[in-house]
Amino acid sequence: MNKLILGMLTVSVLAACSSPAPKETTSTAPAAPQTSAAADTSSSTAAATSSQAAPTASADTAAAQAAADAAAAKAKADADAKAAELALLDKRTVYFDFDIDVFHTADKEIIMAHGKNLGKVSMLKARVTGYADERGSSEYNLALGQRRAKNTKKALVAAGAKDGQLSTVSYGEEKPVATGHDEAAWAQNRRAEISYDIAK
What we know:
The protein is α+β, with helices and mostly antiparallel strands. 56% of the residues lie in helices and 13% in strands.
């Protein structure tokens, strides 16, 4: 009987030892709320990004405006230059001092404009006509008018015209534009005129 009781106790003890240990329950801790310092840092970063983007956009706008202003200024300058060139091409007479066959320095821009124009448009042909005032013999004035025409032609070629586009002729003291007999009239008659003909 004692053996039976002892055997049962042994079985009970063994059964108790072999039963699994209770499982521990683990819980995940909730995320800690964002502290004030972290929130401030996040706000500062966003503000910094925004403040960097604003100057960049502003700089791009300023650059685009500057480019547009530069293009407009160039277009205006080109238009002004074209208008000035056309105004010079409307002038076809250069003037000379008494007994001189070199035109006035003030008329150089007229020669430059016509020479450039002839150089650009090869189909154009022009005639340079030389004149003198009434003083001197007819023969001398014809020769002086011819020298004036030839020197004007040389200047036109130097400015861009082709030699073959130009011809010269002298009328001396004939065909005056002013009929007076004083310096004011003579100054207008000492001239060379450029006239255009389209080549055929």
